[in-house]
Amino acid sequence: MSASAIFILDLKGKVLICRNYMGNMDMNEIDHFMPILMKREEDAEMTPLVSRGSTHFLWIKHSNLYLVAMTRKNANAALVYSFLYKIVQVFKEYFKELEEESIRDNFVTVYELMDEVMDFGFPQTTESKILQEYITQQGHKLEVGAPRPPATVTNAVSWRSEGIKYRKNEVFMDVIESVNLLVSANGSVLRSEIVGSIKLKVVLSGMPELRLGLNDKVLFEITGREKSKTVELEDVKFHQCVRLSRFENDRTISFIPPDGESELMSYRLNTTVKPLIWIESVIERFSHSRVEIKVKARSQFKSRSTANNVSIMVPVPSDADSPKFKTSTGSAKWVPEKNVVQWNIKSFPVRYLKIIEKSGYQALPWVRYITQSGGEVIRHWNKTHLNTHTHTHTHTHPRLVAHLELAS
Protein backbone atom coordinates (compact mmCIF):
# COMPACT_ATOMS: atom_id res chain seq x y z
CA MET A 1 0.00 0.00 0.00
CA SER A 2 1.36 3.43 -0.93
CA ALA A 3 -0.45 6.75 -1.50
CA SER A 4 -4.15 7.35 -2.09
CA ALA A 5 -3.60 10.77 -3.67
CA ILE A 6 -0.77 13.15 -4.58
CA PHE A 7 -1.05 16.95 -4.34
CA ILE A 8 1.19 19.80 -5.43
CA LEU A 9 0.51 22.95 -3.38
CA ASP A 10 1.83 26.50 -3.44
CA LEU A 11 3.29 28.13 -0.31
CA LYS A 12 -0.18 29.23 0.84
CA GLY A 13 -1.53 25.68 0.64
CA LYS A 14 -3.56 26.21 -2.52
CA VAL A 15 -3.82 23.10 -4.70
CA LEU A 16 -2.10 23.61 -8.06
CA ILE A 17 -2.65 20.07 -9.32
CA CYS A 18 -3.62 16.74 -7.79
CA ARG A 19 -4.25 13.13 -8.75
CA ASN A 20 -6.63 10.77 -6.96
CA TYR A 21 -5.20 7.29 -7.46
CA MET A 22 -7.47 5.11 -5.32
CA GLY A 23 -10.72 7.03 -4.85
CA ASN A 24 -11.01 5.95 -1.21
CA MET A 25 -10.58 9.37 0.44
CA ASP A 26 -12.25 12.75 0.50
CA MET A 27 -9.97 15.03 -1.56
CA ASN A 28 -11.10 18.03 0.51
CA GLU A 29 -9.07 16.67 3.42
CA ILE A 30 -6.06 18.46 1.90
CA ASP A 31 -7.58 21.77 3.10
CA HIS A 32 -6.54 20.81 6.65
CA PHE A 33 -2.89 20.18 5.76
CA MET A 34 -1.57 23.76 5.76
CA PRO A 35 -3.30 24.86 9.01
CA ILE A 36 -1.89 21.79 10.78
CA LEU A 37 1.57 22.46 9.34
CA MET A 38 1.52 26.13 10.37
CA LYS A 39 0.45 25.18 13.90
CA ARG A 40 3.28 22.65 14.10
CA GLU A 41 5.74 25.29 12.89
CA GLU A 42 4.58 27.77 15.55
CA ASP A 43 5.02 25.11 18.24
CA ALA A 44 8.45 24.09 16.85
CA GLU A 45 7.15 20.57 16.29
CA MET A 46 7.74 20.18 12.56
CA THR A 47 7.62 16.58 11.36
CA PRO A 48 7.66 15.07 7.84
CA LEU A 49 4.33 13.40 8.57
CA VAL A 50 1.23 15.09 9.97
CA SER A 51 -2.14 13.51 10.69
CA ARG A 52 -5.76 14.49 11.18
CA GLY A 53 -7.84 11.67 12.52
CA SER A 54 -7.29 8.69 10.21
CA THR A 55 -5.86 10.85 7.41
CA HIS A 56 -2.08 11.05 7.10
CA PHE A 57 -0.12 13.63 5.09
CA LEU A 58 3.43 12.75 4.03
CA TRP A 59 5.07 15.85 2.60
CA ILE A 60 8.27 17.40 1.27
CA LYS A 61 9.04 20.98 0.30
CA HIS A 62 10.86 21.92 -2.90
CA SER A 63 11.46 25.53 -3.92
CA ASN A 64 8.09 27.29 -3.48
CA LEU A 65 6.05 24.10 -3.61
CA TYR A 66 4.76 21.43 -1.24
CA LEU A 67 4.42 17.88 -2.57
CA VAL A 68 1.98 15.96 -0.38
CA ALA A 69 0.95 12.31 -0.41
CA MET A 70 -2.31 11.55 1.37
CA THR A 71 -3.20 8.13 2.73
CA ARG A 72 -5.50 6.54 5.28
CA LYS A 73 -3.97 3.10 5.64
CA ASN A 74 -0.62 1.96 6.99
CA ALA A 75 1.46 3.08 4.01
CA ASN A 76 5.11 2.27 3.37
CA ALA A 77 6.45 5.70 4.36
CA ALA A 78 9.95 5.14 2.99
CA LEU A 79 8.47 4.19 -0.40
CA VAL A 80 6.24 7.29 -0.42
CA TYR A 81 9.08 9.70 0.38
CA SER A 82 11.35 8.03 -2.17
CA PHE A 83 8.58 8.45 -4.75
CA LEU A 84 8.05 12.14 -3.92
CA TYR A 85 11.75 12.91 -4.34
CA LYS A 86 11.82 10.88 -7.55
CA ILE A 87 8.98 12.81 -9.18
CA VAL A 88 10.75 16.05 -8.22
CA GLN A 89 13.72 14.75 -10.19
CA VAL A 90 11.48 13.79 -13.13
CA PHE A 91 9.86 17.25 -13.20
CA LYS A 92 13.28 18.95 -13.05
CA GLU A 93 14.52 16.91 -16.00
CA TYR A 94 11.43 17.95 -17.96
CA PHE A 95 11.25 21.63 -16.95
CA LYS A 96 14.84 22.34 -15.71
CA GLU A 97 13.44 24.09 -12.63
CA LEU A 98 10.53 22.88 -10.51
CA GLU A 99 8.56 25.79 -9.09
CA GLU A 100 5.03 27.12 -9.13
CA GLU A 101 5.45 28.83 -12.50
CA SER A 102 6.74 25.70 -14.23
CA ILE A 103 3.74 23.72 -12.91
CA ARG A 104 1.28 26.33 -14.19
CA ASP A 105 3.01 26.61 -17.57
CA ASN A 106 3.08 22.84 -18.12
CA PHE A 107 -0.18 21.76 -16.54
CA VAL A 108 -1.06 19.13 -19.16
CA THR A 109 2.41 17.57 -19.15
CA VAL A 110 2.48 17.46 -15.34
CA TYR A 111 -0.89 15.72 -15.23
CA GLU A 112 0.21 13.19 -17.86
CA LEU A 113 3.36 12.45 -15.86
CA MET A 114 1.42 12.03 -12.62
CA ASP A 115 -0.86 9.62 -14.46
CA GLU A 116 2.10 7.49 -15.60
CA VAL A 117 4.38 7.46 -12.57
CA MET A 118 1.82 5.91 -10.21
CA ASP A 119 -1.09 3.51 -10.61
CA PHE A 120 -3.60 2.69 -7.85
CA GLY A 121 -1.19 4.08 -5.27
CA PHE A 122 1.90 2.18 -6.37
CA PRO A 123 4.91 3.71 -8.21
CA GLN A 124 5.29 2.67 -11.83
CA THR A 125 7.62 4.09 -14.51
CA THR A 126 9.77 6.84 -12.99
CA GLU A 127 12.69 6.88 -15.44
CA SER A 128 12.53 10.27 -17.16
CA LYS A 129 14.40 9.06 -20.26
CA ILE A 130 11.74 6.42 -20.86
CA LEU A 131 8.88 8.81 -20.07
CA GLN A 132 10.27 11.36 -22.54
CA GLU A 133 9.86 8.83 -25.34
CA TYR A 134 6.08 9.12 -25.20
CA ILE A 135 5.23 12.09 -22.96
CA THR A 136 6.50 15.22 -24.68
CA GLN A 137 5.97 18.94 -24.20
CA GLN A 138 4.70 19.29 -27.77
CA GLY A 139 1.03 19.07 -28.70
CA HIS A 140 -0.25 16.39 -31.06
CA LYS A 141 -2.86 16.95 -33.73
CA LEU A 142 -5.98 14.84 -33.51
CA GLU A 143 -5.38 13.04 -36.82
CA VAL A 144 -1.81 12.14 -35.88
CA GLY A 145 -2.68 10.76 -32.48
CA ALA A 146 -0.60 10.65 -29.34
CA PRO A 147 2.55 8.53 -29.37
CA ARG A 148 2.24 5.05 -27.94
CA PRO A 149 4.18 4.08 -24.83
CA PRO A 150 7.35 2.15 -25.79
CA ALA A 151 7.55 -1.55 -25.03
CA THR A 152 10.17 -0.68 -22.42
CA VAL A 153 7.41 0.47 -20.04
CA THR A 154 6.16 -3.09 -19.63
CA ASN A 155 9.55 -4.82 -19.94
CA ALA A 156 11.47 -6.24 -17.01
CA VAL A 157 14.17 -3.67 -17.85
CA SER A 158 11.97 -0.57 -17.76
CA TRP A 159 14.90 1.87 -17.37
CA ARG A 160 16.63 1.07 -20.70
CA SER A 161 15.27 1.09 -24.25
CA GLU A 162 15.96 -1.73 -26.68
CA GLY A 163 17.94 -1.34 -29.89
CA ILE A 164 20.48 1.21 -28.65
CA LYS A 165 23.57 1.36 -30.90
CA TYR A 166 26.84 3.28 -30.65
CA ARG A 167 29.87 3.30 -32.92
CA LYS A 168 32.22 3.54 -29.94
CA ASN A 169 31.28 1.69 -26.76
CA GLU A 170 32.52 3.16 -23.50
CA VAL A 171 31.68 3.27 -19.80
CA PHE A 172 32.75 6.15 -17.55
CA MET A 173 32.54 5.70 -13.80
CA ASP A 174 33.12 8.34 -11.11
CA VAL A 175 33.63 7.31 -7.49
CA ILE A 176 32.88 10.54 -5.58
CA GLU A 177 33.59 10.69 -1.86
CA SER A 178 32.83 13.66 0.44
CA VAL A 179 34.82 13.81 3.67
CA ASN A 180 32.94 15.30 6.66
CA LEU A 181 35.03 16.12 9.73
CA LEU A 182 34.77 17.78 13.14
CA VAL A 183 38.22 18.58 14.57
CA SER A 184 39.05 19.98 18.01
CA ALA A 185 41.43 22.89 18.62
CA ASN A 186 44.29 20.53 19.58
CA GLY A 187 44.00 18.67 16.27
CA SER A 188 42.15 15.52 17.32
CA VAL A 189 39.33 14.31 15.08
CA LEU A 190 36.09 14.27 17.07
CA ARG A 191 33.88 12.90 14.31
CA SER A 192 34.52 11.81 10.75
CA GLU A 193 32.65 10.06 7.98
CA ILE A 194 32.78 9.62 4.24
CA VAL A 195 29.64 9.96 2.13
CA GLY A 196 30.14 8.50 -1.31
CA SER A 197 28.38 7.80 -4.57
CA ILE A 198 29.17 5.97 -7.80
CA LYS A 199 28.02 7.68 -10.97
CA LEU A 200 28.02 6.17 -14.44
CA LYS A 201 28.00 7.49 -17.95
CA VAL A 202 27.12 4.54 -20.17
CA VAL A 203 27.68 4.63 -23.92
CA LEU A 204 27.05 0.96 -24.73
CA SER A 205 25.03 -0.78 -27.43
CA GLY A 206 22.37 -3.40 -26.81
CA MET A 207 21.52 -4.73 -23.37
CA PRO A 208 24.91 -5.02 -21.63
CA GLU A 209 25.21 -6.64 -18.24
CA LEU A 210 27.76 -5.11 -15.88
CA ARG A 211 29.24 -6.43 -12.66
CA LEU A 212 30.77 -4.13 -10.08
CA GLY A 213 33.17 -5.44 -7.46
CA LEU A 214 34.09 -3.38 -4.39
CA ASN A 215 36.56 -3.81 -1.55
CA ASP A 216 33.56 -4.64 0.60
CA LYS A 217 34.41 -6.12 4.01
CA VAL A 218 31.44 -8.50 4.01
CA LEU A 219 32.33 -9.80 0.53
CA PHE A 220 35.94 -10.46 1.54
CA GLU A 221 34.76 -12.30 4.65
CA ILE A 222 32.46 -14.51 2.57
CA THR A 223 35.23 -15.37 0.10
CA GLY A 224 37.91 -15.76 2.77
CA ARG A 225 40.21 -13.12 1.28
CA GLU A 226 42.59 -10.85 3.20
CA LYS A 227 40.63 -7.81 4.36
CA SER A 228 43.18 -5.27 5.57
CA LYS A 229 42.13 -2.67 2.98
CA THR A 230 38.41 -3.35 2.98
CA VAL A 231 35.63 -0.96 3.97
CA GLU A 232 32.35 -1.55 5.76
CA LEU A 233 29.56 0.00 3.74
CA GLU A 234 26.61 1.57 5.57
CA ASP A 235 23.36 3.16 4.39
CA VAL A 236 23.78 1.67 0.91
CA LYS A 237 21.20 2.75 -1.65
CA PHE A 238 21.07 1.27 -5.18
CA HIS A 239 19.53 2.31 -8.47
CA GLN A 240 16.59 0.08 -9.38
CA CYS A 241 18.69 -1.62 -12.10
CA VAL A 242 20.77 -3.50 -9.50
CA ARG A 243 19.72 -7.09 -8.83
CA LEU A 244 19.17 -6.94 -5.07
CA SER A 245 18.65 -10.68 -4.62
CA ARG A 246 22.10 -11.42 -6.02
CA PHE A 247 23.70 -8.71 -3.86
CA GLU A 248 22.09 -10.19 -0.77
CA ASN A 249 23.30 -13.69 -1.69
CA ASP A 250 26.94 -13.10 -2.66
CA ARG A 251 27.44 -9.28 -2.48
CA THR A 252 27.86 -9.08 -6.27
CA ILE A 253 26.52 -5.88 -7.81
CA SER A 254 25.10 -7.04 -11.14
CA PHE A 255 22.98 -4.80 -13.37
CA ILE A 256 21.88 -3.71 -16.83
CA PRO A 257 22.62 0.03 -16.69
CA PRO A 258 20.43 2.90 -17.90
CA ASP A 259 21.67 4.62 -21.03
CA GLY A 260 23.59 7.84 -20.44
CA GLU A 261 24.24 9.32 -17.00
CA SER A 262 22.89 7.87 -13.76
CA GLU A 263 23.80 7.32 -10.12
CA LEU A 264 24.35 3.62 -9.52
CA MET A 265 24.64 3.70 -5.74
CA SER A 266 25.36 5.82 -2.68
CA TYR A 267 26.90 4.79 0.62
CA ARG A 268 28.43 5.99 3.88
CA LEU A 269 31.66 4.95 5.59
CA ASN A 270 31.93 5.53 9.33
CA THR A 271 35.72 5.61 9.49
CA THR A 272 38.54 7.72 10.88
CA VAL A 273 40.16 9.94 8.28
CA LYS A 274 42.50 12.89 8.47
CA PRO A 275 41.61 16.27 6.95
CA LEU A 276 42.68 16.74 3.34
CA ILE A 277 43.76 20.27 4.27
CA TRP A 278 44.79 21.17 7.81
CA ILE A 279 43.93 24.65 9.08
CA GLU A 280 45.82 26.50 11.83
CA SER A 281 44.78 29.88 13.18
CA VAL A 282 46.10 32.40 15.66
CA ILE A 283 43.71 35.04 17.03
CA GLU A 284 45.09 38.22 18.61
CA ARG A 285 43.00 40.90 20.28
CA PHE A 286 44.64 44.33 20.28
CA SER A 287 41.71 46.24 21.77
CA HIS A 288 38.00 45.87 22.31
CA SER A 289 37.45 46.88 18.66
CA ARG A 290 40.37 45.28 16.78
CA VAL A 291 41.06 41.59 16.21
CA GLU A 292 43.74 40.04 14.00
CA ILE A 293 43.29 36.51 12.69
CA LYS A 294 46.17 34.65 11.04
CA VAL A 295 45.16 31.53 9.13
CA LYS A 296 47.57 28.96 7.74
CA ALA A 297 46.51 26.08 5.45
CA ARG A 298 48.60 22.96 4.91
CA SER A 299 47.83 20.12 2.51
CA GLN A 300 47.93 16.56 3.82
CA PHE A 301 47.68 14.61 0.58
CA LYS A 302 50.43 13.30 -1.67
CA SER A 303 52.31 15.65 -3.97
CA ARG A 304 50.92 14.04 -7.12
CA SER A 305 47.41 15.07 -6.11
CA THR A 306 45.89 18.52 -6.49
CA ALA A 307 43.06 20.23 -4.63
CA ASN A 308 41.11 22.56 -6.89
CA ASN A 309 38.73 25.37 -5.93
CA VAL A 310 39.56 25.38 -2.22
CA SER A 311 37.34 27.67 -0.16
CA ILE A 312 38.19 28.49 3.48
CA MET A 313 35.52 30.34 5.45
CA VAL A 314 36.90 32.44 8.35
CA PRO A 315 34.11 33.67 10.66
CA VAL A 316 34.29 37.29 11.82
CA PRO A 317 32.12 39.16 14.35
CA SER A 318 28.70 40.19 13.07
CA ASP A 319 29.49 43.87 13.76
CA ALA A 320 32.74 43.81 11.71
CA ASP A 321 33.12 46.87 9.53
CA SER A 322 35.12 46.53 6.29
CA PRO A 323 37.73 44.01 7.46
CA LYS A 324 41.13 44.16 5.76
CA PHE A 325 43.00 41.08 4.63
CA LYS A 326 45.97 39.92 2.62
CA THR A 327 46.91 36.48 1.29
CA SER A 328 50.12 34.74 0.27
CA THR A 329 48.24 32.82 -2.41
CA GLY A 330 44.77 32.96 -3.88
CA SER A 331 42.31 35.74 -3.09
CA ALA A 332 40.09 36.74 -0.19
CA LYS A 333 36.78 38.57 0.01
CA TRP A 334 34.39 39.62 2.73
CA VAL A 335 30.94 38.02 2.65
CA PRO A 336 28.91 40.22 5.05
CA GLU A 337 25.65 38.27 4.71
CA LYS A 338 27.44 35.21 6.16
CA ASN A 339 29.76 37.13 8.51
CA VAL A 340 32.84 35.44 7.05
CA VAL A 341 35.97 36.20 5.09
CA GLN A 342 36.19 33.72 2.24
CA TRP A 343 39.69 32.68 1.18
CA ASN A 344 39.67 31.09 -2.28
CA ILE A 345 42.59 29.10 -3.67
CA LYS A 346 42.20 27.98 -7.26
CA SER A 347 44.76 25.16 -7.14
CA PHE A 348 46.29 23.75 -3.97
CA PRO A 349 49.65 22.50 -4.38
CA VAL A 350 42.13 1.32 -11.21
CA ARG A 351 40.93 -1.55 -10.97
CA TYR A 352 39.29 -2.87 -14.15
CA LEU A 353 35.89 -2.50 -15.70
CA LYS A 354 34.51 -5.44 -17.62
CA ILE A 355 31.44 -5.41 -19.87
CA ILE A 356 29.20 -8.26 -21.04
CA GLU A 357 27.14 -7.95 -24.19
CA LYS A 358 25.97 -10.80 -26.42
CA SER A 359 27.30 -9.30 -29.67
CA GLY A 360 30.82 -9.24 -28.20
CA TYR A 361 31.85 -5.70 -29.20
CA GLN A 362 34.93 -3.98 -27.78
CA ALA A 363 34.17 -1.49 -25.00
CA LEU A 364 36.47 0.93 -23.19
CA PRO A 365 36.07 1.34 -19.41
CA TRP A 366 37.15 4.54 -17.65
CA VAL A 367 37.26 4.86 -13.86
CA ARG A 368 37.91 8.16 -12.04
CA TYR A 369 38.17 8.76 -8.29
CA ILE A 370 37.17 12.15 -6.88
CA THR A 371 37.49 13.23 -3.26
CA GLN A 372 35.90 16.39 -1.94
CA SER A 373 35.63 17.96 1.49
CA GLY A 374 31.95 17.89 2.35
CA GLY A 375 32.24 19.92 5.55
CA GLU A 376 35.36 20.31 7.65
CA VAL A 377 34.75 22.22 10.90
CA ILE A 378 37.66 23.06 13.18
CA ARG A 379 36.86 24.25 16.69
CA HIS A 380 39.05 26.84 18.43
CA TRP A 381 39.36 27.98 22.01
CA ASN A 382 37.18 31.05 21.54
CA LYS A 383 34.44 29.16 19.73
CA THR A 384 35.63 30.46 16.37
CA HIS A 385 35.22 27.74 13.75
CA LEU A 386 36.66 27.44 10.27
CA ASN A 387 34.83 25.68 7.46
CA THR A 388 36.90 24.38 4.56
CA HIS A 389 35.44 23.17 1.28
CA THR A 390 37.86 21.49 -1.10
CA HIS A 391 37.63 19.60 -4.35
CA THR A 392 40.38 17.33 -5.67
CA HIS A 393 40.34 15.85 -9.13
CA THR A 394 42.84 13.15 -8.18
CA HIS A 395 41.95 10.73 -5.40
CA THR A 396 44.82 10.37 -2.92
CA HIS A 397 43.68 7.37 -0.87
CA PRO A 398 40.36 6.04 -2.19
CA ARG A 399 38.47 4.27 0.58
CA LEU A 400 36.18 2.48 -1.85
CA VAL A 401 37.93 0.65 -4.69
CA ALA A 402 35.70 -0.16 -7.65
CA HIS A 403 36.10 -3.16 -9.91
CA LEU A 404 33.63 -3.09 -12.82
CA GLU A 405 33.18 -5.88 -15.37
CA LEU A 406 31.20 -6.24 -18.55
CA ALA A 407 30.15 -9.91 -18.45
CA SER A 408 31.25 -12.14 -21.32
Automatic annotation (TrEMBL):
Residues 168-408 form the MHD domain. It is a peripheral membrane protein. GO terms for biological process: intracellular protein transport; vesicle-mediated transport. Keywords: Cytoplasmic vesicle, Membrane, Protein transport, Transport. The keyword Membrane applies. GO terms for cellular component: clathrin adaptor complex; clathrin-coated vesicle membrane. It is found in: Cytoplasmic vesicle, Clathrin-coated vesicle membrane. InterPro entries: Adaptor_comp_med_subunit, AP2_Mu_C_sf, AP_mu_sigma_su, Clathrin_mu, Clathrin_mu_CS, Longin-like_dom_sf, MHD. Subunit of clathrin-associated adaptor protein complex 1 that plays a role in protein sorting in the trans-Golgi network (TGN) and endosomes. The AP complexes mediate the recruitment of clathrin to membranes and the recognition of sorting signals within the cytosolic tails of transmembrane cargo molecules. Belongs to the adaptor complexes medium subunit family. This is Adaptor related protein complex 1 subunit mu 3. The lineage of its organism: Eukaryota, Metazoa, Chordata, Craniata, Vertebrata.
